[in-house]
Amino acid sequence: MLSLFYSFWYLAKSIYWFFPVQGTETPDFPQTFNALEITPLETTFTNHIPLDQNGGHLQGIQKYEDRLFLSGSSQIKSYMVEVKLNKDNQTANIIELMPEPFRHAGGFQVFDHYLAVGIEDNIQRTISKVMVYDLAQNENIWSQPLYAIQREGEYERVTAGAVGITSYKENMVLAVANWDSRDIDLYSCPLEAFNLKKGSFKLINSISTSSLPKENWSDPQWLSYQNINLFSDREGGLFLVGFAKDQQDRQVADLFELTFDLSGIENLALRKLNSKVFQTTDGVDFKAGAGISVDKSGRISLVACPYQIKENTTINQFQ
To answer: Of 96, 89, 92, which Cα lies nearest the Cα of 71?
Structure first.
């Protein structure tokens, strides 16, 4: 009887590892995005863990289950801050991602239990790494990333200041934005290989935002997005949301529809559908960190943070 139990246990475990991606999709992402409130709910968390923020600032934020993750940079290292959301709302951990020259962890995204972030040399600006971590690992989450993409090349062209991740048409897709999001590189990995941890991300196409046709956009503005997120919905659409502060110092989230051929050859298009302006409080700034999370019911929420972590830090949440 015991051997039968273990047979079922190993079978269940193998099924879990073969099909680990269970990201929740919204029924209609543009409709859900457009319904977001523009005034925030405030949440304050406390921090008592020493953190040297000299020469850097927060750059990304995502909500994952009962936690917040915030990425940041400094003169000597890139880091990730983990905040437990409970009755105390306090920092649980500050993780060093990489030492200099990879001192800048940029805007990032959590999809299902995977976190994708770009870590760059923000001084030389000729090298970066895109890391994919598994938050469901019991140990060695940050020291053993599932995947790493090395980027080297021209000044500011191969930085990775903002990264989005989602599943789409049986592939895991990454969007990597370089300095001020002037270009976006699209990578894909077959989902089956990704789940087995035996895949690799292939660069399949790039978007040069300076040459994008904008005749059918809701408005022609392309901003310096410091965070980008990717989402697919049940209607089969793929969408990109960019977060920035515009020329009028307004906190903006822009919604784009993304179309491309996973072969990487043709049918690449990016169309702006809508732009929403949000009201923030207590130093929260979309140029620092902002991002959208999807819960198990398909409901989305937008969270944003200020530039620096203080003893008491306020974040904004829009639902």
So the answer is: 96
